[in-house]
Specification:
By secondary structure, the chain is mostly helical. Helices cover 60% and strands 11% of the residues. The protein has six helices and four strands, in the order αααααββαββ. It has a two-stranded antiparallel ribbon. It has a two-stranded antiparallel ribbon with strand order 3-4. α2 crosses α4 and α3 runs antiparallel to α4.
Length: 132
């Protein structure tokens, strides 16, 4: 069976998680809540956060083999490995904040709509008003 979209993959992951055990889902839910609070408190980048999710998933999987514990294997099956899946797992698929682009020269904030323009039907970056 081919999976066409990220949403279908997510539905398959959730159905697999329901088959495993609801207590495993609760443990991963608590772990993800802690990790998201930790990310926010210490201003951890999304890339570093995704790396940490991947690490936990692989760690649970490896330790399940090393220790022979099926519980850790089941936790690794439930653990999301991407930021998108982690947010969906918690039921918060969308960001509720505004993102800005910062000029590295003058540190001025720009919205994404202010940073791009179209030239010959191609989207290109604008230059900062600070740059001459």
């Amino acid at each position: 069976m081919l999976i066409d979209s990220e949403e279908e993959m997510e539905e398959n992951d959730i159905s697999k998680a329901v088959e495993i055990n609801s207590s495993h889902v609760k443990v991963i839910h608590l772990l993800l809540l802690f990790l998201f609070m930790w990310q926010s408190l210490y201003q951890i980048s999304n890339a570093a956060f995704t790396l940490l999710l991947t690490f936990f998933k692989q760690f649970f999987s490896l330790m399940s083999v090393y220790l022979g514990l099926s519980t850790l294997h089941q936790l690794s099956e439930v653990m999301p490995s991407t930021l998108y899946r982690a947010k969906n797992f918690l039921g918060h698929p969308e960001d509720n904040f505004k993102t800005y682009v910062v000029c590295p020269s003058c540190h001025k904030l720009y919205s994404f709509s202010e940073c791009c323009k179209y030239e010959n039907r191609k989207k290109v970056s604008k230059t900062c008003t600070f740059v001459q």
